[in-house]
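[job 0412] stage=complex_fold ligand=flavin-adenine dinucleotide status=START
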Amino acid sequence: VVVVGAGIIGASVAARLAGAGVEVCLVDREGPAAGASSAGEGNVLVSDKRPGPELALALRGAELWRELADDAKSRRVEGLHSRFGAFEFETKGGLVVASSPDELECLRALALLQREEGAHVELVSETGLRGLEPALSPGLVGGAYYEQDCQVQPMLAVGFLLGEAAAQGGRVVPQVEVLGARHGRGGAVQALRTSRGWVEVGRWVINAAGAWAGEVARRLGGALPVKPRRGHVLVTEPLPPLISHKVYEAGYVSSVYEAAASWRCAAVIEATASGTMLLGSSRELAGFDNRPRSEIVASIAWRAVALVPGLAQARLMRAYVGFRPATPDNLPIIGADLAVGGLLHAAGHEGAGIGLALVTAELVEAVVFGRAPRLDLAPFAPGRFGSEEW
Ligand SMILES: Cc1cc2nc3c(=O)[nH]c(=O)nc-3n(C[C@H](O)[C@H](O)[C@H](O)COP(=O)(O)OP(=O)(O)OC[C@H]3O[C@@H](n4cnc5c(N)ncnc54)[C@H](O)[C@@H]3O)c2cc1C
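[job 0412] stage=complex_fold status=DONE, emitting structure tokens
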């Protein structure tokens, strides 16, 4: 199997398949975590998922992260901050906060549906909020607490997974760009044309090229509706502990599912093991422009301070943008391409690729081995899209 893309999805798939005895070669035109996987905040969220296939995917995804963290801990694999383990896995829980009774009602309605499908969620009163997070603004009216939400450090996670793949015999080759393909009888991909020559394909090519997955599909003779949805993140200087959960405003959930062309922001705040705080985030369809925009940086900063007033004194170290791989229905694309034999897609995870990486790999493994997948793959099928312009 040749995996294209050394982000969190490609790394998870490579580790899973190599662990199952498959001969794996992973290529990336740059190197590990060169795309969105070094821009993501690392939240493994159940809380923002719509009931149905997306929530089922997220619940299994969070479960697999816990299992992997336990496994790494039992083998004493350590990362940068030994207290937090190989990839800074933290079971901190997520707190979604509402600033108006209407928002609180929306949160409540969503929480009840999610609870029916297995999410552990508790509604929190105004005073309850203060008990959980004393630094929150007094203007908030309540919220919802999701115990299953957790956090990883995405770059360490990519490194860890690539290490796992290599330890099981997988090859990870940086600076190899996939440019095209040679097709055999019946149209199946036989070999990849790359910037460093031809790479023979045994059975599958797995397209894990993130926001570039549409372009990679095109180069291999297929088509995939994946676009970059740009997001900004602000990084503060290391601060004394201000919040202990992941905290975000209720409007974040609707911002995830709106396909507006103009930018919008919703405050998402999390502390990291090194003491810096990550303040996110924005969403816009603006191509691959990687220059941060000052008005978006300012908007994120204002919204974060409105939630946690103590942040007003914090200084920013930097701000950056990343490209979420977005799809028309905001669900990932996982499965075999019906038009191009031997091509399997694992892409389009938008703002949830870190959380969904391990479950994606589990599903890909089922396809590769021809086994029944643990979750129904139909909602994620590459062929589900019509021909309309996206
Ligand atoms: C601001 C922001 C915040 C986010 N926060 C979170 C979060 O808290 N939680 C969460 O779960 N998700 C989050 N995400 C989303 C998450 O980062 C992505 O869903 C995830 O990283 C996608 O991973 P990937 O492996 O599919 O793609 P990428 O990490 O983008 O990797 C794709 C790789 O493919 C390579 N590639 C591209 N074209 C070629 C080619 N032709 N040949 C060879 N290699 C190629 C690239 O170099 C790249 O390394 C966030 C994203 C952003 C932008």
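Residues 80 and 86 are 8 Å apart (CA to CA).
[job 0412] exit 0
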